[in-house]
Amino acid sequence: MNSVAVFGFCLLASSANADETLTKARALFKALPESAQGASQLDPIDQNRIDLGRALYFDPRLSASGTHSCNSCHNLALGGDDNRADSVGHGWQSAPRNAPSILNSVFNESRFWDGTVANLERRAMGPVRTGVELSNTVDQIERTIGSMPQYVDWFAAAFPNEAGPVSFENTARAIEAFKTTLITPSRFDSYLNGEEGALSPEEIGSGRIDFRHPA
Q1: pTM (2 decimals)?
Q2: 33-42, 51-60, 137-146: lowest mean pLDDT where?
Q3: pLDDT tens string 162-173
Q4: Is 133 marked active-site?
Q5: What's the Cα-to-Cα distance from 61 to each of 21, 142, 143, 178, 181, rounded to whole Å?
Q6: Total domain count for the chain?
Q7: Domain range spanning residue 114?
Q8: How far apart are the first and last CA of the chain?
Q9: 149 and 51 share a domain?
């Protein structure tokens, strides 16, 4: 997948009827929210949990080999995926599918290509333990994280009411908390929300809206 997804659609409306164009656009698309508040089962989301999740997302020590992180396949610099037809994981194995973009995934009704996971928290648990992905174990992850004082402090801050905050479940919760910040509302979303001037007259007036959306 290209790092810039080409977003285009045709609306049969006259250049003199911008309101009709907007009405038809709204019938086809729903504007992306400015934040994930209310969209996540993890609400309310603490900033300490988000910061911890960010560190874990980029940390290759979550993998058995110490070479792959979440960002390896869901690279934020490449639009939230790896631009490959088949992603590469543990032992440089090729996965049977490519990695979907992680951007805006908090709004998805289901996760994975087969739609088998609906819960955000469980979304982070699978790849860490899958042999062709990070290929790690729950015990090893907890031992690795628990051996690093900085992580122990971060987990304590993110989960202050728990006696043993360093756990595989909390690792998944923190990563998913970070993912709720990975949203990319665009000018097109502003247009759907009725923001005057979000799109140029040329983009709207002809009745054809072509917009390049980073994704």
Answers
A1: 0.74
A2: 33-42
A3: 999 999 999 999
A4: yes
A5: 50, 11, 11, 18, 22
A6: 2
A7: 47-70+90-95+102-179
A8: 10
A9: yes
